[in-house]
User: What shape does this take?
Amino acid sequence: MALIVQKFGGTSVGNTERIKNVAARVARYRARGDSLVVVVSAMSGVTDGLIKLAKEIMPLPSEREMDMLLATGEQTTIALTAMALQAIGVPAASLTGAQAGIVTDGVHTKAKIKNITPKQVHALLETGSVVIVAGFQGQTPEGQITTLGRGGSDLTAIALAAALKAGLCQIYTDVDGVYTADPRLVLTARKLDEIAYDEMLELAGAGAKVMQLRSVEFAKKFGVVFEVRSSMNDNPGTIVKEETKSMEDVVIRGVSIDKNQAKVTVVGVPDRPGVAARIFQALADAAINIDMIVQNVSHGEGAPVTDLSFTLDKPDLLKARKVIDALKGEIGYRDATTNEAIAKLSMVGVGMRSHSGAAAKMFAVLANEGVNIDMISTSEIKVSVVIDLAKGDHALRAVHGAFLG
Amino acid sequence: MALIVQKFGGTSVGNTERIKNVAARVARYRARGDSLVVVVSAMSGVTDGLIKLAKEIMPLPSEREMDMLLATGEQTTIALTAMALQAIGVPAASLTGAQAGIVTDGVHTKAKIKNITPKQVHALLETGSVVIVAGFQGQTPEGQITTLGRGGSDLTAIALAAALKAGLCQIYTDVDGVYTADPRLVLTARKLDEIAYDEMLELAGAGAKVMQLRSVEFAKKFGVVFEVRSSMNDNPGTIVKEETKSMEDVVIRGVSIDKNQAKVTVVGVPDRPGVAARIFQALADAAINIDMIVQNVSHGEGAPVTDLSFTLDKPDLLKARKVIDALKGEIGYRDATTNEAIAKLSMVGVGMRSHSGAAAKMFAVLANEGVNIDMISTSEIKVSVVIDLAKGDHALRAVHGAFLG
Assistant: This one.
């Protein structure tokens, strides 16, 4: 008899038939004697429909009212899910985020969870009910309805699991778990039985789309062990947990490719203190997130100059170009170029800490395949390279083959 | 500068264009310097759509979860209405029933308002915002979401007007106000400038569909003066208020016809104490609402017997027939007949208290028109007769013509 938190995303509750499937799954766990808290998202399409309504009213609706509007999406699902459980004889009751005691700050549309006081959840669990909680939403201490932004329902589940000291937190999704690589790109990709929080974080940051960074960070911070698994079958998924000694035996846990990046190179930048800071402060002021940064060694005679390259999300490229152009007079660089035809290839593994030579092997594999490396960036457990977009998938398969079979 | 509570029903907020129209109207009042609290219903069709979803899950969903589900309807409208006001430069903020401090009992799907503590409403009004409140919903002291049942949004508006000591409460609807008769049936029907609570109550009970009884009863109890008016134009509506001396100058305020009733006659009922009680208790136990009851004088020789007739809503007729049939052995009546081809014609006016002869004049008008009267029931300010359904509209026009021109 354990307390399990299960989270089902928008696709898993996309219509009443699927909601009945979710109820059937929950009922099977309950029949084993487990207590269950079920977190659900809005039915797929519902949130988009609400956003469309709001846009009919005004192009940029107030964030407070957007939260009020969007919170109805999950509220609809929790009621229907509770009904679907009752329909098969399982006592169930639904709670909004506010009712479940999810207290957030007041930053509407991307609120942060401050604390959870799940009094009503405990009370309902004690009556033997399955408790259905609306994901993605909470309320401020003053009683304003807030939403948590992208990936918010995962966060609700993990935060509730922490607050309730749940034995297990299951994140149901439309994939079987975390893979060594995207199986649509790499046929030999394997599902992982387990992965360390840090590896999951690096993979998410490297373009793997299973979960948002913030939910994994929250789980790591509070030591919530969770399982990513499919709502379409009964296969065990991938357990995400604190790094263990045995995990280091595997050098590389996974590889991923991010094709949504673009590169900016500023050529002939005067090599004096404060110039890089000026450039990246200006980009930050424009709310542009920078990923990799590489600065070449100074070259030239007379006043030393350097080349500076960085990558960012493609949609931000035009904005970044404007920022850089505006700085030309002030900084006095020679030229700025941009390149959208790039891919960022990353490999991740805590085993890199204790096994040297992984990066060298990756570079050799790419050289063998005739793939030129444009930029390199490394962390303790990750190596990322920027390469030609056209060679991205081929390079991904080659690196996966060399390290992961 | 007054505080005005305005309520807009589902048709008035049926799509985003209409919501913008509502916002424009609210803005005009605000430009005069008034403070505004706006109560809105779910967009027309939304509630039915939610009920359909629930029925896909199970035929008879739990009432707690139905409330959780249906409450999303008004929550959607309040957010969109607040946005529509902001879009035209009017500060506005929305509140759910719970946030507006509407505390109810725990009878899900037809909760009663216990009290209102509109702290957030006051706070928002003080910042100069128009406050948009979700009609039809509240929460129990324990924090469960409830809905108020049919006509619940009117009730929210009137109860808020009472709690906030509003200067005026306007109920916007798709008719211009309260009429001397249904203008679709009586071409010469006139809109009333004012009507007494009691007259409005009797008319509502007699089939006039402008408002539910309970909202009018609430308004009467707390002395809330309200105006019924159209959201489609700027015509003044009908003021509903406490009876004044001058109201008695008018004998008849309005006439109405209810074609949704059926009649049951139990013939040859033994005329002994307790028999009527037994019959109507059995009907009450079956949750059947009885409207008019008429018992003829005893006739026959030997053991005295009587005939008992009553009317009820047509949809309850079959159920009532079963109850009556089941009592035959116990009571020993001779026969029971039913008639669905009836209409109840009523005329209402506080002036009847001080003007005698109104009922006699009504009967004479009907006799002149060859309309036979089947049953009669009177109150201090109302006379109702049951007549042949086929002659209903003609009789309505004749009585309206005689009393109201």
Notes: The longest strand of chain B covers residues 261-270. The mean pLDDT of chain B is 93. The domain at 244-405 of chain B is CATH 3.30.2130.10 (VC0802-like). The two ends of chain B are 39 Å apart (CA to CA).
